């Protein structure tokens, strides 16, 4: 249920119906709609972490393949939640944590390819973040209607473009 609709459109009754339990059971277990959403996000986060830990560090193709797999599974949900951020209350902090986790993952996976000069490293991380963000996937996959393989190729090309260090900054 939480995956199919914007957060603000989901009710506790919807959650209960989707789970095949009573409204009171949902309240007893999660205390609120926010609690149920937090539990769902925690499960999704575990799945994402499992996918991301499989990435071969320094391998742009594999990293993007894993990201596209993740986005194919939960990208639409991520987009809906990000678009609802101002209405999510305390759950909005989870979006900030997810962005920070994505950035830390990028830094870990691409560490050998990133500059050591702090300003250049930050610029490279910002570019990698833009190249691999769920919004980039949405643009390519949903808005431009590219196939999954073409989306993967395009995002990989973007990442490779960021990682090329032959041209000095001016």
What can be said about this structure in brief?
This protein has helices spanning about 10-20, 25-30, 35-50, 60-85, 90-110, 120-130, 135-145, 150-165. It is mainly alpha-helical and about 170 residues long.
Largest sheet: none
Distance between the termini: 50 Å
In terms of DSSP E residues, the strand content is: under 5%
Label the overall shape: elongated
Class inferred from helices and paired strands: mainly alpha
Q: Using the coordinates above, name the CATH class.
A: Mainly Alpha
CATH second-level architecture: Orthogonal Bundle
Task: Return residue spans where pLDDT drops below 50 for at least 5 consecutive residues.
Answer: none
Order of helices and strands: HHHHHHHH
Mean pLDDT: 85
CATH topology name, in short, is: Tetracycline Repressor, domain 2
Q: Tell me how many strands there are.
A: 0
Number of domains: 1
Q: Bin the helical content.
A: over 70%
Tally of helical segments: 8
Radius of gyration, in Å, reads: 18 Å
List keywords for this structure.
Tetracycline Repressor, domain 2, mainly alpha, 8 helices, 70% helix, single chain
Report what the structure shows.
The structure is a single chain. This protein is elongated. The N and C termini lie far apart (50 Å). It has a single domain, classed as Tetracycline Repressor, domain 2 (Orthogonal Bundle), CATH 1.10.357. Helix 5 crosses helix 6 (118-132) and helix 7 (134-143) packs antiparallel against helix 8. It has eight helices and no strands. 70% of the residues lie in helices and 0% in strands. By secondary structure, the protein is an all-alpha fold.
């Amino acid at each position: 249920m939480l995956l199919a609709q914007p957060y603000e459109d989901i009710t506790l009754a919807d959650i209960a119906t989707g789970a095949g339990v009573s409204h009171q059971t949902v309240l007893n277990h999660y205390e609120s709609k926010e609690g149920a959403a937090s539990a769902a996000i925690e499960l999704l986060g575990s799945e994402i972490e499992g996918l991301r830990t499989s990435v071969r560090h320094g391998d742009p193709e594999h990293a993007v393949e894993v990201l596209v797999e993740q986005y194919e599974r939960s990208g639409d949900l991520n987009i809906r939640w990000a678009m609802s951020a101002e209405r999510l209350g305390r759950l909005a902090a989870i979006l900030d944590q997810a962005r920070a986790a994505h950035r830390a993952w990028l830094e870990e996976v691409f560490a050998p390819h990133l500059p050591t000069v702090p300003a250049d490293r930050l610029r490279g991380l910002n570019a990698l973040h833009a190249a691999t963000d769920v919004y980039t996937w949405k643009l390519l996959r949903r808005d431009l209607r590219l196939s999954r393989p073409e989306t993967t190729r395009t995002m990989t090309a973007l990442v490779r473009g960021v990682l090329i260090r032959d041209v000095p900054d001016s």
